[in-house]
């Protein structure tokens, strides 16, 4: 089984690689907004194809491992969780691409306001992705609960951003299109944090098994 | 392999059962808003636990089938797709629950405007869920492309709803909290359609195999 152990190790590394690509996408998409760097935004959009390709590769590798090695119990659950996690990572990549698209549009107009909460949201979301993958590869069971809690912080920031933008829109209807775009960016980041939360939930499920998902997590809120 | 065929058939039925529960949740959550029926909204929220439980059950059954029957190629891909699809269905259930939560809040205040686009969005989203699951169990390859196209319609309605609500908010700041809640409902429905789109993409991938996902679908847009 030494070959299979090596294959599982390689699978973990690929998932972490995908995670790090996705983290970079989040970071760069928000940086392209804050620093008004549309070239960087276009790079994020271009690189999304690599994220998609790696997601498909990992999926194929998981299917191959299941078919060839016929893993049982823990290993099987690890592989099926990897398949699900990469789907979430790929969707986070799409959302970072959406942030970059809005950044390009916003960079074409004068800046409505300095960005403070949005980089903070991106930072938390990025940490959540990193920690949830860390918990996945190391099999941590406590850490995911901490990650799920941080999702509330991102939700609160999203509401705060939205309320602030409403204030701008009401004061001056000329700000509406820009404010709406910024509110979309905030919403994308909030959804990225949701996906990281989903990953954390799946890691808890993987570690603890049956019937923990949904129920116990709800009880912990 | 007659037993395995029977198990696969039972799995299909359970996925369809979950789909039909989720469809009902979408329908009822929007009806609870339109008909200002908070009791119905509370029923949607209560029933979400059943959706979560069935999601976990299907996941367990898929893992059991993989471990016990060691399926290959087509059957294995069908089972792993079922695992992913149910994750999307469960999240649609959560979003319907969110619609019901906003409905309860909105039903406590006077009605801002008649709901026209929102029931339309719910109807399309519901059809998308139904058709994508139909394609999944029957192995259709053309239909998913049609489903993906309908997502654009929902996106457009969401933008239309948002613009209309902005108009209300600008005219009269007293409408802001209600308008914001309605815009959330619209956004939840838009995300439900996104999940249905994801299911359709996974069905195409399941049927056609390697490297179709993301790339071909993007080319078809």
Explain what the structure shows.
- The structure is a homodimer of 221-residue chains.
- The first copy, chain A, has 221 residues and is mainly α.
- The first copy, chain A, is built from seven helices and no strands.
- The interface between A and B is large, with 37 and 37 residues.
Looking at this protein, list some descriptive labels.
221 residues; 7 helices; Methane Monooxygenase Hydroxylase, Chain G, domain 1; 0% strand; homodimer
Task: Give a short overview.
Chain A has 221 residues and is mostly helical. Helix content of chain A is 86%, strand content 0%.
Helix/sheet category of chain A: mainly alpha
What CATH architecture of chain A do you see?
Answer: Up-down Bundle
Helical element count of chain A? 7
The count of strands of chain A amounts to 0
Radius of gyration of chain A: 19 Å
Shape of chain A: elongated
**CATH class group of chain A:** Mainly Alpha
Q: How many structural domains in the coordinates of chain A? A: 1
Assign the CATH superfamily of chain A.
Phosphate transport system protein phou homolog 2, domain 2
Largest interface: A-B, 37 and 37 residues
Task: List low-confidence stretches of chain A.
Answer: 216-221
């Amino acid at each position: 089984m030494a070959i299979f152990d090596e294959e599982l190790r390689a699978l973990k590394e690929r998932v972490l690689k995908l995670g790090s690509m996705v983290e970079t996408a989040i970071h760069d998409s928000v940086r392209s907004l804050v620093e008004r760097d549309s070239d960087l935004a276009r790079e994020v959009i271009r690189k999304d194809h690599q994220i998609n390709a790696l997601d498909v590769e990992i999926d194929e590798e998981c299917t191959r491992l299941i078919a060839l090695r016929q893993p049982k119990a823990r290993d099987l659950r690890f592989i099926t969780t990897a398949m699900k996690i990469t789907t979430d990572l790929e969707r986070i990549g799409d959302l970072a691409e959406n942030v970059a698209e809005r950044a390009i549009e916003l960079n074409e107009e004068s800046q409505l306001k300095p960005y403070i909460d949005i980089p903070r949201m991106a930072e938390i979301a990025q940490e959540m992705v990193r920690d949830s993958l860390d918990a996945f590869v190391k099999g941590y069971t406590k850490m995911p609960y901490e990650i799920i809690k941080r999702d509330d912080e991102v939700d609160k920031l999203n509401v705060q951003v939205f309320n602030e933008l409403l204030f701008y829109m009401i004061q001056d209807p000329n700000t509406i299109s820009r404010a709406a775009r910024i509110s979309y960016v905030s919403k994308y980041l909030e959804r990225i944090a949701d996906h990281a939360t989903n990953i954390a939930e799946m890691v808890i499920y993987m570690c603890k098994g049956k019937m923990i998902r949904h129920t116990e997590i709800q009880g912990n809120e």
